[in-house]
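Chain A, query sequence.
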Amino acid sequence: MTTSAMSGTSGRAGTSQRAGGSVKAGGAERAGESVSAAEMTVVTAFAGMRRVADVLFKAGCPDCRAALELRANALMLAIGATSRTTFYSFTCTECGSAVRKPAGERIVELLTGGGVRTLRLHSTT
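Chain A, predicted structure.
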């Protein structure tokens, strides 16, 4: 899985020198007075973020042996009652084959965190 770095080149992460004082992670200075992390606004916290990079998942096709990088919308996760019925699936972009692979706890965690569509195959009650 690949993502882009959030810090960028604007010097927003860590400590950077600015005219009128320094800005540190967890707080900011405004005209010589310090602003604590509790007083920080959403606008201040996300200043400098332009967009979040798409998450790419690496997978392999068992039919043509292609190494693929897939976006979340190209995958589907099915969560069953047991580990045998929990899997993820995708269509190989090289050969067009429908691929279904088992998904353990860690894979389920990564796929759901990355925005992959999820289908529950069993009742939770």
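The beta strands are 15-18, 21-24, 28-30, 33-35, 56-60, 67-71, 75-79, 87-91, 98-102, 117-120. The chain is about 10% helix and 35% strand.
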